[in-house]
Amino acid sequence: MLKDITLGQYFPGNTFIHRLDPRTKLLTVVIYIVAVFLAGGWGGYALLLLLAALAMAVAKLGPKTLLKGMKPVLFVILFTAVLNLFYAPGEPIWSFWILHITREGIRNAARMVLRIVLLISSTLMMTYTTSPMAITDGLESLLNPLKKLRFPVHELSMMMSIALRFIPTLIEETDKIMSAQKARGADFETGNLIEKARALLPLLVPLFVSAFRRADELAVAMESRCYHGGEGRTRMNELKMAGRDWLVLSGALLALLAVILLRIRGL
Amino acid sequence: MTPLIEIRDLSCTYSRGTPFELTALKKVNLSLYEGQFVGLIGHTGSGKSSLIQHLNGLLSPTEGKVYWRGTDVHSSKKLLHELRFHVGLVFQYPEYQLFEETVYQDIAFGPRNMGLSPEEMDGRVKEAAAFAGLSEDLLQKSPFELSGGQKRRAAIAGVIAMHPELLILDEPTAGLDPGGCREILDNLNDYHKKSGTSILMVSHSMEEVAAYADRILVLGEKTVKMDGSPREIFARAEELKAMGLNVPQVTDIAMRLRALGIDLPPVYTVEQAAEAILARKGGSTHA
User: What is the DSSP-derived secondary structure letter of residue A94?
Assistant: First the structure.
């Protein structure tokens, strides 16, 4: 069923990583991603892999959870691996018809797969341990300097939190309307592409109508509570950087430095 | 007599094998017969919605079987598809499913999916609109121009137009004003009497169920707790209250009067209560 779709699902918990400030986690992920792209040799990858495993253990996330989150991009990973495997120049060590596998090919494929896996697992680890609301709060706070350039930071983050808040609601609604139309004999599964697109009409029209109705109601509810944008708005939970946040951030920067040094040494 | 629909040992579990596993129904046994007007009551989360979606094949049972006129509905895909038309299901707040340009076309959506001829469709749409209490001048309007109550009627007409043998309604009066509630229920009762269609109505209101149903099912603890005529069910007021449900107000009043020593028979509609009190009064003036 549609309900089974998870979009960056958050697993509530109270580990060291859960308690970190969302800004710390966002910045650490950015630093980590830069490091993944800068890493040159196996030494750098080994270090990054070790750090990811450490974070996973601290956050008490099983490898199973991470693998499940990686399922949607499995195709991309496989595709990259195959492409890199067959399309690298060099001395072939195995040939069949027009397919050649070279030592470089194997190395490239392994490196690309490792890169993608590290990128995805680091972002997954952030969304698994940070609630969507905390992520938007963190983003708003990090983007704050852009306000000087008249960039609508508050509006953007408000839009993000509203969108996140309504994803499950709309999924539930879609489920309900789908059942109601199925009960009237609607068929969403069979037929060619055009028939299938036409069959979606009885689902999309009511869904849009109700989304607009909800938006209207939400706007009224917000205005009746005196919402007037970000100007002078205070927060119930102020974001505060604690000692552990500075610790993690400096650790991340150190790791980045180490990766760069390893690259210079050719490791 | 073969029941219209029969449920044997039905269990329903959502998200099986995950930490979110949730049992909605457990070992439900139930038979519905032709010509009945059945009321289904139970507090929120007692599995009413899950149960009715098994009756038209939208959900398939985790365990147990559903039989339509003696045949297992999951034995063939064809029967499962036809079951949607045999068992008409009107969801809660059905007005949110309207989508066509005109009310007429929307009511015709079900019959069109059945593959009927345009003439037959036309007849059914007009007949269903009349049963649902929609006047003919509304048929060419956009469904989004109608009032809340009219939209509800249009949605109900859309299911009636499929000529189901069993019509299931999930809280058809939720969110309507008392006048609107009574009108819709009277229309449904009229339809039930004239067409002979069996009706299963889910409701929170004991008064509604008492006034229209000839059989009441009470869901509790994920299964059918009570099954009987309104008289039998409302005689078990204490059990109902223990389940977080209630009896009709007038039944409650009669019970309290009885506790005070006034001899009244058990009643469950205002009309019955009036009759009983008049009869008693008549008796006492003669004495």
Answer: E
User: What percent of chain B is predicted at pLDDT more than 90?
Assistant: 52
| Number of other CB atoms surrounding residue A105 within 10 Å | 22
What confidence tens digit (pLDDT) does each residue in B173-226 have? 988 888 889 999 999 999 999 999 999 999 988 888 988 999 999 998 888 999
Residue to mutate among B87, B93, B96, with most A CBs inside 10 A, is B96
Q: What residues have CB less than 8 Å from A260, skipping those under 6 apart? A: A38
Residue range B51-110, pLDDT digits in tens? 999 999 899 899 999 999 999 988 888 888 889 999 999 999 999 899 999 999 999 999
Q: What distance in Å separates residue A197's CA from the closest CA in chain B? A: 15
A183/B88 touch (CB, cutoff 8 Å), yes or no: yes
Say which DSSP state A102 is in.
E
Q: Cα separation of A216 and B108, whole Å?
A: 30
Contacts of B113 in chain A (CB under 8 A): 184-187
Minimum-distance CB partner of A180 among B81, B97, B113:
B97
The helix or strand, by DSSP H or E, that contains position A96, with its residue range, turns out to be strand A92-96
Spatial distance between the Cα atoms of B128 and B144, rounded to a whole number of angstroms: 19
Chain-chain contact of A177 with B96 (C-beta, under 8 angstroms): yes
Q: What is the per-residue pLDDT across A53-90, written as a single tens digit (0 to 9) for each?
A: 999 888 888 888 788 878 888 888 888 888 888 877 77
**Å from A180 to nearest chain B CA?**
6
Q: How far apart are CA B12 and CA B22, in angstroms?
A: 9
Q: Tell me the two tokens of residue B212.
A: 């229209």
To the nearest whole angstrom, how far is the Cα of B58 from the nearest Cα of chain A? 7
Number of CB atoms found within 10 A of residue A92's CB? 14
DSSP per-residue codes, chain B: ---SEEEEEEEEEESTTSTT-EEEEEEEEEEE-TT-EEEEE--TTSSHHHHHHHHTTSS--SEEEEEETTEEGGG-HHHHHHHHHHEEEE-SSGGGG--SSSHHHHHTHHHHHTT--HHHHHHHHHHHHHHHT--GGGTTS-GGGS-HHHHHHHHHHHHHTT--SEEEEESTTTT--HHHHHHHHHHHHHHHHHH--EEEEE-S-HHHHHHH-SEEEEEETTEEEEEE-HHHHHTTHHHHHHTT----HHHHHHHHHHHTT-------SHHHHHHHHHHHHHHHHH-
Contact check, Cβ <8 Å, B162/A184 = yes
* H or E stretch covering A259: helix A243-264
Q: State how far residue A15 is from chain B, nearest Cα, in angstroms.
A: 20
Residue B143 CA to residue B174 CA, distance in Å, equals 19
Which ipTM value was assigned to this complex? 0.86
> Helix or strand or coil: residue A99?
strand
Q: Which residues of chain A are within 8 Å of residue B85 when distances are taken between CB atoms?
A: 185
Residue of B nearest to A204 (CA): B99
- What chain B holds in terms of domains, given with CATH numbers, is 5-247 (3.40.50.300), 248-287 (no CATH)
Domain ranges, ordered by start, for chain A: 2-264
